UniProtKB/TrEMBL annotation:
Gene3D superfamilies: 3.40.50.1400. This is Sirohydrochlorin chelatase. It comes from the Bacteria. The keyword Lyase applies. GO terms for molecular function: lyase activity; metal ion binding. Pfam families: CbiX (PF01903). It comes from Oxynema aestuarii AP17. InterPro entries: CbiX-like, Sirohydro_Cobaltochel/CbiX. The lineage of its organism: Bacteria, Bacillati, Cyanobacteriota, Cyanophyceae, Oscillatoriophycideae. The keyword Lyase applies. Keywords: Lyase, Metal-binding.
Length: 254
């Protein structure tokens, strides 16, 4: 995960890791029924790219040492990121490269694609939330990346969902997108009423960022007083998100 000074994302990632352990344990139950109970609990830990006392490379090395002691010869690193931005394309691979150099041939360190690459799975997860309030015009609000192509997956997801996209850190911003929606001619609007706008924060967990989004929406509700706004919850540490991660792990391990 990225890392945060807010304790809530840390707590959420721990709960998500527990869900994933349970999901993997269930898989072992069905595929290896004779395995001892003590061996059914998969070995999963979490790490942070930023705001951790140790750099990610050292966190990986420490995990690798513990994995080797448990008899493992391969580990998977799963980036819990929704964008193919600088962190996923540059920062994390650099840290993995350093960790591999330190670990050597004692253990293989594999890096999967980021979970945001699972567009079909993310589509089904978000569509289930959006369809519950289909009368509203939805905006998919992502953090955004300045890296070329970093927002491509969000744009593809928004197009597939039939919703507008906006970004926290780059253009089009939420305010720009709301203004665009309000100014659309009546005949060119979607079936969802543009006077009732719902914002889905395409972020993993509740935290400082989602609070900042809520504050911004409060300000925008004063500026666009003719519109009604609804803020949905982020993805959260749900069974559905754990399933997406499980599918990613299984695909990359095959």
């Amino acid at each position: 995960m990225h890392g945060s000074r807010d304790p809530r994302p840390r707590q959420a990632i721990d709960r998500l890791a527990d869900r994933l352990r349970d999901r993997l344990a269930d898989s072992l139950d069905s595929s290896t029924p004779n395995l001892a109970k003590n061996d059914r609990r998969p070995y999963i830990e979490t790490a942070q790219l930023e705001l951790h006392p140790l750099p990610l490379s050292e966190q990986i090395c420490q995990f690798a040492d513990r994995a080797i002691a448990r008899g493992y010869r391969r580990i998977q690193l799963i980036p819990l990121f929704l964008l193919e931005g600088v962190h996923v394309r540059e920062d994390i691979p650099e840290q993995v490269k350093k960790a591999r150099a330190l670990v050597g041939d004692r253990l293989a360190i594999e890096m999967t694609p980021a979970i945001g690459s699972r567009l079909d799975s993310m589509y089904h997860l978000l569509a289930a939330k959006i369809d519950r309030f289909a009368s509203r015009q939805w905006i998919l609000l992502s953090h955004g990346s300045r890296r070329e192509g970093g927002n491509r997956q969000v744009e593809e997801l928004g197009k597939k969902l039939g919703v507008f996209t906006a970004y926290w850190s780059v253009s089009p911003t939420l305010e720009e997108t709301i203004a665009q929606l309000r100014d659309l001619p009546e005949g060119s609007r979607s079936d969802r009423g543009a006077r009732e706008i719902a914002i889905f924060p395409y972020f993993l967990f509740v935290g400082g960022m989602t609070e900042a989004i809520a504050d911004l929406i409060g300000e925008l509700s004063l500026k666009f007083s003719d519109l009604q706004f609804h803020l949905a919850d982020p993805l959260g540490d749900s069974d559905s998100l754990a399933q997406i991660i499980f599918e990613l792990m299984a695909t990359c391990a095959a």
